[in-house]
Specification:
- The protein has 197 residues and is of the alpha+beta class.
- The protein has one domain: 3-Layer(aba) Sandwich (Glutaredoxin).
- The protein is 42% helix and 20% strand.
- The protein has a seven-stranded mixed β-sheet.
- Helix 4 links the parallel strand 4 (98-103) and strand 5 (126-129).
């Protein structure tokens, strides 16, 4: 019995040390400050084929995840292009990263629309939509803000936050990038996390 307790305690210490070491290593890559905020979590959305997918289906490798909408006149296409270019830089360095675009405007952004939008930016970009409730739950998990300016005009706008979240499988959220970050910076910081993990 004592031997089992000793072995169990040794295993816990080893696991604790590994977690601390990994945390310290990941901290060396950190460029943002998120404090103790819990960002990310389970979601259930609809992909461009109309299939229901979860976060576990989507985040199977390092992922750059962005909330926006396809009718967005400014920041969304710029950030999507930046993320796609960062993914290209990472591929040249031997890292495979998935760019993901989640709409905050599911009324207009059907599976086909988000699929076409994603395909414009990168052949591996995943476009996701869902019901209003599904999209709202996903934005809540990531602490992403959005507000629709509904009107009779079909060209209504949507206010939204514009962070790109770096997610690592098995770890979850590790970093976010603001719109002002360059593709070089996104690629460099993402590579640091991938190598550290």
């Amino acid at each position: 019995m004592k031997l089992k307790l000793i072995l169990g305690a040794t295993a816990l210490v080893a696991v604790g040390f590994q977690a601390i070491s990994q945390g310290d290593t990941l901290d060396d890559c950190r460029v943002s400050s998120v404090g103790d905020a819990q960002i990310g979590g389970p979601f259930e959305l609809i992909d461009e084929t109309g299939a229901t997918v979860t976060d576990q289906d989507v985040i199977t490798e390092p992922t750059l995840l962005y909330f926006g909408y396809t009718f967005c006149p400014d920041v969304c296409p710029l950030d999507s292009a930046r993320n796609s270019l960062a993914v290209e830089f990472l591929e040249e360095a031997g890292h495979t990263v998935t760019p993901v675009f989640i709409t905050v405007d599911p009324t207009r952004d059907t599976p086909e629309v988000v699929g076409d939008y994603a395909d414009v930016f990168h052949p591996r970009m995943v476009g996701l939509t869902g019901t209003q409730d599904q999209v709202h739950a996903a934005t809540q998990a990531y602490r992403a803000f959005y507000r629709l300016h509904r009107s009779d005009d079909e060209f209504y706008l949507v206010d939204h936050s514009s962070f790109t979240y770096l997610m690592l499988p098995e770890i979850g959220f590790v970093e976010f990038f603001r719109s002002g970050a360059s593709s070089d910076e996104v690629a460099e910081v993402t590579a640091c996390y991938i190598n550290a993990a």
